[in-house]
Design goal:
Order of helices and strands: HEEEEEEE
Strand content: 25-35%
Distance between the termini: 70 Å
CATH class of the domain at 66-133: Mainly Beta
Oligomer: single chain
CATH architecture of the domain at 66-133: Beta Barrel
CATH superfamily of the domain at 66-133: Nucleic acid-binding proteins
Shape: elongated
Structural class: alpha+beta
Strand order of the largest sheet: 1-2-3-7-6
Amino acid sequence: MKRILRHWTLAIPLVLGLSIAACDDDDNAMSPGAPLVPSATETPTPAPTPPVGMTPTPSGPQTGDIIGFIGTFSSVQGSTLQVGNYTVATNDATEFARNGQPATLNDFNIGEDVRVRGHLMADGSVRAIRVAFPIS
């Protein structure tokens, strides 16, 4: 008997709650026979414009910024490398390191993942400051 009462004491509030929710006054519901009247639409608010003299700060790296990335060394032509999606220009000032020791471009192998640090150029290429392997 106690078990039956316990189940009913849980079931009654649940049924009442669902009944009340189902009878909720829905402002979006149309009653039968109500005339079809279009609702007024609000005029969208335009996005705020920055004050005069202020421009939004662009996101992401900009030309001249120093960036670092890891990519697969896929080709070399002269002193220009292809690493991941970047064309990487090297010069006499570029530092090469392999296993923590000074190295040269000839010490790197196609297919290796390398870490590059350099200046982002206007054309999207990178002028390398340092190229290192391994990446850890």
